[in-house]
Write a sequence for this structure.
């Protein structure tokens, strides 16, 4: 069994990312950016809950914390899942294609693997969309000494979302079902435009709080 | 001696980021985002150099690779440096202030530590500005199968730059030298607006290449 990426050191992960192996790549980097965003929101919640000044928002931020920890676990898992789904695509491309029957089986396997491989970055996008919204709540209601950390969380989640979208799109390039491609592109477009607006609104409120 | 963060596992780093300790925080997360951007550019260069199809750009991308590896090392170092400089600010705030002399010494120490603490995220911003420019080169000239990774590199570096800027600004909030603050804010504003334009241009070219 391959050791889990999450158990490797940061230095080793960066070396692997930089190496001439195609995995881990941008999909895993996106998931880790998102996980850092979730973790930073958890930190701000942890440093707000229990303080007298913030008693009014304690219940709300406790609920946010439970959610950010859940999303962090999901994104940490996606660091590995992206590598696995890329491996499945590569295995499909490596299938024999000497006869017409083999060629058809291979084409079908590639198409299935590509559709599967799209699922991980697409889930990364949806999870990061939620992290951006939670960043705005934490920036507004959390410990004001840490408002920049809530701001970093939104920026990290937004970069992760946009990165996930690039990973969906590069896989869609080889998908032959045009209707499926069109529906995915439309879904992504909606997600990207909502996320941009939400991130800039959060960033504005963070900067205002630091003036 | 405290163990180096870069030697801790990704899972442990995320746990520490999420914990009720103020460090590591957004500054370290920003440096790691930037380091991932540099690492992804190194990967694309590594998977371009030596391929017959890309012989014309081999020398140029070899030079880019040397540079992205250097910037990756600097950013990896900043993951630690951000924690250290925050520690120095905290130690200054913890100085005694029972007499007027103590109070004056403490104020001076806080101001010095804040100015020092700004240097790490400010360097992160400048280094990430360079990574964004290198992303555009790699997206244009590197292995086209990996163009999405060059795109992720630009997005990661841009998020790191914006995050670094938030960390500079939250420290500037407590700096009393208004002239120094104004000059830093102006420098950041210039950097942020150049970086936004360069990132969006790179993103457009990446998306175009994937159509």
């Amino acid at each position: 069994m391959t050791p889990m990426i999450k158990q490797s050191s940061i230095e080793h992960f960066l070396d692997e990312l930089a190496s001439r192996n195609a995995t881990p790549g941008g999909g895993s980097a996106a998931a880790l950016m998102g996980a850092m965003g979730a973790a930073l929101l958890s930190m701000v919640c942890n440093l707000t809950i229990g303080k007298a000044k913030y008693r009014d928002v304690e219940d709300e931020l406790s609920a946010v914390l439970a959610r950010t920890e859940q999303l962090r676990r999901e994104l940490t898992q996606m660091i590995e899942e992206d590598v696995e789904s890329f491996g499945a695509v590569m295995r499909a491309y490596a299938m024999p294609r000497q006869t017409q029957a083999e060629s058809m089986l291979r084409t079908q396997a590639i198409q299935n693997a590509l559709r599967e491989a799209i699922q991980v970055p697409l889930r990364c996008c949806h999870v990061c969309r939620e992290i951006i919204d939670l960043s705005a709540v934490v920036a507004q209601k959390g410990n004001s000494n840490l408002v920049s950390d809530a701001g970093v969380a939104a920026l990290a989640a937004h970069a992760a979302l946009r990165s996930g979208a690039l990973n969906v799109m590069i896989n869609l390039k080889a998908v032959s079902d045009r209707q499926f491609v069109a529906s995915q592109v439309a879904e992504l477009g909606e997600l990207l435009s909502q996320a941009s607006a939400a991130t800039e609104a959060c960033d504005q409120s963070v900067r205002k709080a630091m003036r």
Observations:
- Chain A touches chain B through 60 residues (CB under 8 Å).
- Chain A has a mean pLDDT of 96.
- The radius of gyration of chain A is 20 Å.
